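Suppose you are handed only these lines of text.
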Amino acid sequence: MKNTKQLRSWLDDFGLDHPLVIAGPCSAETEEQVLKIAHQLKETDTTVLRAGIWKPRTRPGNFEGVGALGLKWLQKAKEETGLLITTEVANANHVDLALKHDVDILWVGARTTVSPFIVQEIADALKGTDKIVLIKNPVNPDLPLWLGAVERFYEAGVKNLGVIHRGFSTYEKTRYRNNPEWQIPIDLQNSFPDLPLLLDPSHIAGRRDIIFDLCQTALDLNYDGLMIETHHDPENAWSDAKQQITPKTLDQITIDLRIRKEEGDAVEFKNRLNTLRTQIDVIDNKIVEMMGKRMKIADNIGLLKKENNVAILQVKRWNEVLGRMILEGEQNGLSEEFVLRMYKAIHQESINHQKKVIDGSLD
Ligand code: PEP
Ligand code: MN
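From them, the structure of the protein bound to phosphoenolpyruvate can be written out as follows.
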């Protein structure tokens, strides 16, 4: 990708003084539902109405979308409200139908981005279009695969591009439906600072209560916009009911979010500083999370030692760990003194955890 400045011209053309907001239901359900939500969103900062027409479900038997019929409802919503419209396309036939129904923005879903064959098919179907194409991250945490999809569109002459961060699937259950892995979009931003980057907090969260915090982190990291699933009656939505919010809640979220405008040198400096600090926060959260995991394993070792009547402190093992970490630290630009001090503290906490497990059993 060469002329990367051009990548964001579609976003600049919107002339917004706030991040781009794309909102609307996970799925178009009925004409009445689409129109109702569209009219409610018209009263908010929303520029683009979203709705899934063809729904990729992980398991069969869930609502798989109303199909092409829903495009007519979106078109009607656009006529009545002036909102732009967007839907997910997952093959060349979807593209054809979406173009026939004046869909302004097409998005490529997370389950599609994983497949270079399908991405290529969609890119070929869109050859040279001036439509905007937004590419969600693949379900697996693979930055080159995500960028590869962007490149396929770029090489097909699609120049109005952007990406949507919707989190990454993990086997392990966490507080998120899809782990944010903020480092991946941060790396992407560092390589392609002009490529518009949006957050989809709905699919990361999988629930309503952490959507605001996710949006704030994204804005602090200089994201360009948000795509948020919004429904007039979230509880009764036909898909993703737990994560949808009402247009009223969306409105409140956009009011409460701190938005940093880039103007002037001093502000520019503050923005940059804030972005870097948020990057540090992301890593600090990860460090503490990993420490927690490490100590849980130490608890298990404590149990095992207790069952086998083995002493907590195994000097040989500890020296091995320390030696390995000093070398590892050296390769990562960390001084021996720092690694020693850090590992002494970690080791002490580990011993405390094991003691607790063993003493607990003496009661
Ligand atoms: C969606 O936006 O409704 C959707 C299916 O998203 P994703 O591709 O991120 O799972
Ligand atoms: Mn959804």
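What can we learn from it? DSSP finds 14 helices and eight strands in the chain. The first strand starts at residue 20 and ends at 24.
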